[in-house]
Specification:
By secondary structure, the protein is of the alpha/beta class. The chain has one domain (2-255): Rossmann fold (3-Layer(aba) Sandwich), CATH 3.40.50.1820. It contains 9 helices and 8 strands.
Length: 264
């Protein structure tokens, strides 16, 4: 995986890319970009990967150009169009899952297949999500991981050469994430999901406390044409805690025979 930069209008973003094969775009979660994570390295064995860092996160600029979620999704539409490899397979984790679903609704012509991993975007009044911005590190780890010891395997795009401390880097990312997640991570996606036509796989870790099991059921209800899969012994980052099972699910879904899109 190679780290580079891509300029798109007023946006100047970091991107990790590599591999060869069918194009796959990966959108990361609310805490940080995973950098050249092992699971992205493995996916790059059979796919050409483009994994951008969201504007306003880490070293990516352009956050001041975003008034709302629609601005961000339009930016991602332009980025995928500019890559010139569409339609792409689109994988979104956590907050990136919300972004990926919105992009698949807005620009169905650009998305061949969609994978959502422990995604945000829905809200259940009878099962409110924990607020990750208020949780102290130990409490966040307890709801994020099945085994908090796995946190040592998580990778990050933090680069001290950029001049920030790790604490500053985290503050930058959480500040950007709060635009789309605070006070709750719901920007009306449920109203738009009926327009999602791409073949979709929703993956959940069975021990995820950030988007708990009730949300796996909510996604299944909101997308009756989609497939859902639960990975055992994994929390909010099944690609870290159960990398092999995660890769198998994603590859099987992306490589299976053509699956008709839902009629619009």
């Amino acid at each position: 995986m190679i780290q580079s930069r891509m300029r798109l209008g007023d946006f100047d973003v970091r991107i990790w890319s590599g591999g060869a094969g069918p194009p796959l775009v990966y959108l990361h979660g609310f805490e940080h970009h995973p950098g050249a994570a092992p699971y992205l390295q493995r996916l790059s064995g059979d796919h050409q990967i483009l994994a951008p860092e969201h504007p306003g996160f880490g070293a990516s600029t352009g956050f001041d150009r975003l008034t709302d979620l629609q601005d961000l999704i339009l930016y991602y539409r332009a980025l995928v169009e500019g890559w010139g490899r569409g339609p792409v397979d689109l994988v979104g984790h956590c907050l990136g899952g919300m972004f990926a679903a919105e992009l698949a609704v807005l620009a169905p012509q650009l998305v061949r297949r969609l994978v959502l991993v422990d995604p945000y975007g829905l809200w259940l009044d009878d099962a409110p999500l924990p607020d990750p911005f208020l949780l102290v590190p130990a409490a966040l780890a307890a709801v994020k991981w099945r085994d908090p010891a796995c946190a040592a395997r998580e990778t990050s795009a933090f680069d001290p050469a950029l001049g920030d401390t790790a604490a500053e880097f985290r503050t930058i990312n959480l500040t950007a994430a709060s635009k789309f997640m605070w006070p709750i991570p719901d920007r009306g996606l449920a109203r738009r999901l009926p327009y999602l036509t791409a073949p979709t796989l929703v993956i959940h870790g069975d021990a995820d406390g950030l988007t708990p099991p009730a949300y796996e059921a909510a996604w299944a209800a909101a997308l009756p044409h989609a497939r859902t899969a639960v990975i055992a012994d994994a929390g909010h980052l099944p690609m870290v805690e159960a990398e092999g099972a995660f890769i198998d699910l994603v590859e099987d879904f992306l490589n299976e025979a053509p699956w008709p899109r839902v009629p619009e």
